[in-house]
DNA sequence: TCCGTCAACCAAATCGATTTCAATTTGGTT
DNA sequence: AACCAAATTGAAATCGATTTGGTTGACGGA
């Protein structure tokens, strides 16, 4: 059913019908009601592509999906979905080319120029992230999930990674730990940098020297958590505590400790970051995992919300949200038991 | 840069330019080469929305995302993304309303009628899944990931859930287990049903009576795995083995067993289904987890591929792919140690 | 009565491509 | 040289909406 045909059935012009459905004021309430009602009855829906061509609006928010297929990502998207379900907007997932490469930039450029999305969300930004410069330059509305130091103004929502890790580390220090290993995320992303800063500043403000040997970076997998933790724990001057980037990493650390006969919470303390997953919870680990905690899903919801606001006209420049991160202490942290040799 | 303008710069008509870029044969190779080259140089790209309006094709495959934000989903999508990265097609994620409700059907109807996607992928179908009937009726191309018993022809890709669980269960029986608990997925989906059938048929063909008390259904979470396993293991006539629906469930079972001082692999055997995640692998669990194994990511890639084939004209009716599932034995399975009272 | 205002509606232009149908050029035959 | 088929190229219609710039008629005030 096309507009023309539908309008004819109603004895109205396409103009009036279009206005009635889009909520323009120049149409009488009586007519509008009739149009709306008949539209439902006859099943008329404007052709999306025609609307898009004419208005230039697409009704979709773009998200570039990393190849790693990170588990965080699904949570974030679920959050976005929750917010967008009432809106007439959907999520366009774009497979990502290799990061840092020309291909990645070209992908963003193509996307911005191809009018396939109204706005984009940039994930895991780097300190000097050219994607942000590009989108800004191209005039594509966007929101950064995370932060960047690039000197281009950009709206962002981020969690307080630095503060979270500082508190976590400080807490471990308060418990008497001095050799604290840091299993951070992949080098490059700002969040990893911020966590690194938080870790170092906590040590320094307590007068503890930073041992670069105790800092490692890598993907958030059980596998890497295990390997790093294992090699740390096999050292003669082994760490007595860990700060870890994710729940999966924590699983690996638990496993490594167990494999060496060490007790989590007494021989070794662990604090990890918990993005809050429905299927795996820090409270349920054994022993329960102390964690810095911030919901990825909630972030997704809020990001979608902010993007909608930007599209509705809110100035992006004023959007900077820094979310605090809870530190929840459970059983995986405890005082140092004995001084290591 | 619009087509008209671009064509003028080249001294050609829009018609020829359009043809040259779309690869029509009626344009000389010399001209085509020039057009293509200049398009790159001047940065001309056809306006997607105009193309869509005119051709009726959208360049997007729709996937309805459950609210649970399951971890499988991200893997599946990552797989799709891998296949689609070379194509000019993207993934449209649609937030899902409550399943089984009117809202869900309306969502599918709206989607099919709104021309926002060229095709859809239906997940976790139920035995009598009205979504399939609806899409078929509406003429929207689609592919079912999983299977349905509905008497509407539909293309599908599924893994051999029944066979996988039958083999897993049979193997446990061969090891001497007779009380085998089954922690299945949410009731309703066909895959859960198939697994149930596989489980029962294995028992029956070995002359073991099915104890309905040993069969439970629920989401794939560590939490539920723990609770179910715990309550099973506290029974006087406790099971000596588990067949579980997911890695998360297995984590929960491990935890439950440990909390009761039981050894996985000797006191209690476990086989779970492994969808193959980059961040959590069966091999790395302690003890390593025996699993029926099939890659969700590979399924996503293949599904995307099949959908593209359907869109390219392949008859959907002939598309039925049943993927075998590997059974990989590791340390979590072993012979029954002692007969329980 | 006449005019201005306002509410309600409409005709036609427009968005930017694709594609049908027709025109032109090229090259080969006789 | 004349003709025809094949190879190229174009003009204009089309996809289905939105929106600009009207028109119409009712009503109130002068």
UniProtKB/TrEMBL annotation, chains A, B:
Pfam families: LacI, Peripla_BP_1. The lineage of its organism: Bacteria, Pseudomonadati, Pseudomonadota, Alphaproteobacteria, Hyphomicrobiales. SUPFAM superfamilies: lambda repressor-like DNA-binding domains, Periplasmic binding protein-like I. PANTHER family: HTH-TYPE TRANSCRIPTIONAL REGULATOR GALS, LACI-RELATED TRANSCRIPTIONAL REPRESSOR. Keywords: DNA-binding, Transcription, Transcription regulation. The keyword Transcription regulation applies. CDD domains: HTH_LacI (cd01392), PBP1_AglR-like (cd20010). Residues 1-55 form the HTH lacI-type domain. This is Substrate-binding domain-containing protein.
């Amino acid at each position: 059913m096309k507009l023309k045909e539908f309008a004819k059935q109603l004895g109205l012009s396409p103009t009036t019908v279009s206005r009635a459905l889009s909520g323009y004021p120049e149409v009488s309430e009586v007519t509008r009601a009739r149009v709306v009602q008949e539209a439902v009855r006859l099943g008329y829906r404007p052709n999306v592509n025609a609307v898009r061509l004419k208005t230039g609006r697409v009704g979709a928010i773009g998200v570039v999906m990393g190849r790693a297929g990170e588990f965080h990502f699904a949570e974030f998207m679920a959050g976005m979905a929750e917010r967008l379900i009432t809106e007439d907007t959907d999520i366009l997932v774009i497979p990502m080319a290799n990061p840092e490469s020309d291909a990645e930039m070209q992908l963003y450029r193509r996307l911005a120029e191809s009018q396939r999305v109204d706005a984009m969300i940039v994930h895991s930004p780097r300190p000097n992230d050219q994607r942000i410069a590009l989108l800004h330059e191209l005039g594509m509305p966007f929101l950064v999930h995370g932060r960047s130091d690039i000197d281009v103004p950009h709206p962002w929502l981020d969690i307080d990674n630095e503060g979270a890790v500082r508190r976590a580390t400080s807490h471990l220090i308060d418990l008497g730990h001095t050799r604290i290993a840091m299993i951070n995320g992949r080098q490059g992303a700002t969040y990893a940098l911020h966590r690194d800063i938080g870790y170092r500043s906590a040590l320094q403000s307590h007068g503890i020297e930073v041992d670069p040997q105790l800092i490692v970076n890598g993907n958030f997998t059980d596998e890497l958590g295990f390997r790093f933790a294992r090699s740390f724990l096999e050292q003669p001057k082994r760490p007595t505590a860990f700060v870890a980037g994710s729940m999966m990493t924590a699983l690996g650390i638990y496993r490594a400790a167990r494999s060496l006969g060490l007790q989590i919470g007494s021989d070794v303390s662990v604090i990890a970051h918990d993005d809050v997953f429905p299927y795996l919870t820090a409270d349920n680990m054994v022993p329960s995992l102390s964690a810095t905690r911030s919901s990825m899903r909630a972030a997704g919801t809020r990001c979608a919300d902010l993007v909608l606001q930007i599209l509705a006209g809110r100035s992006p420049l004023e959007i900077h949200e820094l979310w605090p991160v809870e530190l929840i202490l459970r059983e995986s942290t405890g005082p140092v038991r004995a001084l290591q040799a």
